[in-house]
Q: What sequence folds into this?
């Protein structure tokens, strides 16, 4: 592997990719992005001036398109996905073909020497045991179609020796390709613009992580690939295993007058309820740099600009 390996990123114009790609370019990597631009945004405008960036409009499920792109890459990062239980429930065929089948196709066409860095979701843990942390050894019991497709993608990826899987907590924070439907981003948006939110299953807990810290985890994985390969890693904030109600209490500190109410009826479509240990990746030297409070503050600032459902996956 060269000092600055070339990187292929599927779905690179998305929420995570548009944050990660400028970091990779700054470090000197050549980056090829393939994206179908289904959300009609152009979040890579600010890095088009970099000669190390190539952008391909195409479908990451198309083997004929992918084969020549994969052949040129040292590292593949498959970010293309239908993310979240609601979106996957709306397009089950698209969810399976994009989240699961396209990853299996990559595994089949990649050479053994190429590196694969795979993001999945820690919603694969499903419903945890009260007071017991989910570790990478905890059985995966995904409840939603989204969770099931990502768990299957991880299983395919880890059949290769030269792969790493990152089990991501619920991501938050501002990004060039913004998403308002992620839990923290959604609640802060409602706090800023509506001053209220109604919670379903307010006691359900989950873990959280800033989008820039997710990008930093990929950089860490590239830098430490030889010692981390072949394993899954939880990626989250160890001090942010919070229920929805506790999250709203944190937001209240930054948005005076924000009120949250618990609905007596209704349920979360993605029934995740667990707390997560991030000790394994922390033991490799990785530490998040951006707290939940920092993320809430930047979201409040960003929402001065954003008042549009264009910035949502659903």
A:
């Amino acid at each position: 592997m060269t000092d600055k390996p070339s990187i292929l990123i599927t779905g690179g114009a998305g929420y995570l990719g548009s944050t990660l790609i400028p970091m990779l370019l700054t470090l000197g990597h050549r980056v090829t992005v393939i994206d179908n631009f289904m959300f009609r945004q152009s979040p890579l405008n600010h890095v088009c001036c970099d000669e190390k960036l190539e952008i391909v409009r195409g479908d990451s499920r198309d083997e004929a398109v992918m084969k020549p792109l994969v052949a040129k890459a040292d590292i593949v990062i498959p970010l293309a996905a239908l993310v979240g239980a609601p979106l996957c429930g709306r397009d089950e065929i698209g969810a399976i073909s994009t989240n699961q089948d396209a990853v299996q196709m990559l595994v089949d066409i990649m050479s053994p020497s190429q590196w694969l860095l795979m993001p999945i979701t820690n919603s694969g843990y499903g419903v945890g045991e009260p007071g017991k942390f989910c570790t990478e050894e905890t059985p995966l019991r995904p409840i939603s179609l989204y969770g099931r497709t990502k768990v299957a993608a991880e299983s395919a990826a880890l059949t290769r020796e030269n792969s790493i899987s990152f089990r991501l907590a619920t991501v938050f924070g501002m990004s060039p390709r913004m998403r308002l439907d992620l839990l923290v981003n959604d609640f802060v948006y409602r706090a800023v613009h509506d001053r209220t939110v109604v919670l379903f299953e307010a006691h359900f807990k989950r873990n959280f992580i800033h989008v820039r810290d997710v990008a930093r985890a990929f950089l860490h994985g590239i830098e430490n690939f030889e010692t981390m390969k072949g394993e899954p890693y939880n990626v989250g904030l160890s001090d942010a295993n919070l229920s929805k109600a506790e999250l709203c209490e944190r937001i209240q500190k930054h948005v005076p007058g924000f009120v949250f109410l618990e609905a007596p009826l209704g349920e979360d479509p993605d029934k995740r309820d667990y707390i997560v240990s991030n000790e394994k990746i922390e033991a490799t030297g990785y530490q998040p740099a951006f707290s939940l409070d920092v993320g809430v503050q930047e979201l409040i600032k960003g929402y001065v600009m954003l008042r549009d459902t264009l910035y949502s996956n659903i």
Observations:
- The chain has one domain: 7-177+207-238+272-290.
- Residues 165 and 200 are 30 Å apart (CA to CA).
